[in-house]
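User: My instructor asked us to take a sequence, write out its structure as tokens, and then describe one feature of it. I'm not sure where to start. Here is the sequence I was given:
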Amino acid sequence: MEIRNFCIIAHIDHGKSTLSDRLLEATATVSKRLMKAQILDQMDIERERGITIKLQPARMEYEHEKTQYILNLIDTPGHVDFTYEVSRSLAAVEGAILLVDATQGIQAQTLANLFLALEQNLTIIPVINKIDLPSARPDEVSREIIHLLGCDMDDIVRVSAKTGEGVHELLSRIVQTVPPPTSREKKNTGTRALIFDSLYDEYRGVVAYVRIIEGAISKHNNIFFKATATKTEALEVGYFKPKMVPSTSLEEGEIGYIVTGLHDVKECGVGDTITLSSTPKVQSLPGYRAAMPMVFAGLFCRDGDQFQYLRDGVEKLKLNDAAFSFEPEHSPALGYGFRCGFLGLLHLEIIQERLKREYNLDLVVTTPSVAYNIILKDNTSVIIHNPLELPDGNNIEHIQEPWTKVDIISPEPYIGNIMSLVAEKKGYYKNTEYLTSATEESVRRVILHFELPLASILVDFYDTLKSVSSGYASLNYEVTGYRNADVVRLDVIVAEDTVDSLATMVYRDQAYFEGKKIVKALKDSLPRQQFEIKLQAAVGGKIVAAERISALRKDVTVGLYGGDVTRKQKLLEKQKKGKKRMKASGKVEIPTDTFLKLLRR
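Assistant: Let's start with the prediction itself. The structure tokens for your sequence are:
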């Protein structure tokens, strides 16, 4: 049987998972009795939010002109935070369906995923979805695609993933245009399989998702992992339909899984090459460029006894999500935890939710920050993920922060609002491209290119962008490198003691406003003591903002029942001296609830 390997790429919410459902239905891969919406989205969190987080393969069988074909589909995520999942999928296939919403047209992530596919020299099949909706604009969207790809109108397939219209035409187009599997790295040296994803099974150990590049791997074969030099037995091999279906072997060009039985998650890395133990010296496949986490936050357990469960959880999630990184960290207030690296804020949110659901952990997450590159006076450099790692100021030549290339697609009337927002966030305008010409439609859509610091788009940039564009703008960003930045470490001092856990990196011109915000929040949430508490925010040795919490007054004269006034004055003087001593040596314990309010500010 002939094989066709392809994936679906699109912007978020353009109907990838729904189209996958219709393809599985049209090829009778899933019976109507077992069919449900978003069948390839395996996690509860994906189904609840309506977004794809993990790539998911599925094998279909389709007859075209009396020839049987095996169609291997990989459904991919659409959000910018999961671009790494898309890039791994593209390396395992020969073709890509570029799905565009007929009501929204080309969006920012559509472009980003298209360029990833073109880098891999994949065959692109342009498809317009949601043509059944009253607000669909298939002709206008077709012109945008032609302008982008340089294809003909006849090359674009129009479908409705909801009703199934056009799905059989799309299947025929896949068979006709996607080339059969041929190894881009074929050396005829022996069996080689590329691991494009993996998961951990409690009973069967690590399960590797593979694309067989050369040769074949059968059940009970002794296999060898090139990167870790690990030997094991293939306990089971099979393919996805979309559930795992055991098979006797996986042949060249096929996509499937191998149950390895390994229980050390570090021994099976995504991008590694699997070969047979009899040919351990075959050349490794190129694998993947390592994902670079750019957003960092601390993960701690509310209950310190759960730390070991947290360690197990992050190690197993790392196997399932190669873009996630972690290292141990200790906080005086929150105890032991991990400093974790993420690709973006949604990635952080999903990891937190998965740890909570899959491992029953109650977590505290610190304020997300970016990595800074510190250039020292001896011309060496060090990258820090935590403000506490900042070297002594006398040794620093300058500090660099990560910058991004940002593409925003929006209708023309909102250009002014978007430019104002970017300027406010310390960004720079580069240029504007038009998706269609002026004569084709009344409201033209444009691609605005900017450069922005990563720290500026971390917290609320996307929400504000949607607000200033009435929900029409879409965003894609890519980290381009480091640039000099005038940033400083803002320390928080409570009762003359520096609280390390509350230190943050801020722009120098915003230090006063950030410091004022923190000390005000502390004043509102810290309980009063028997002595006055000074709250300060400092940059270096300079105090930039301060507040005071006045002392509780205990009435020490309440037990007096008369007599000379000097008795009352004597007690008050004694109390005054006691408060002075307490102020000099008093320690303030910051409650965990106060920490949480500040870390999530």
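For the description part of your assignment, you could build on this observation: The first strand starts at residue 2 and ends at 9. Try explaining in your own words what that tells you about the chain.
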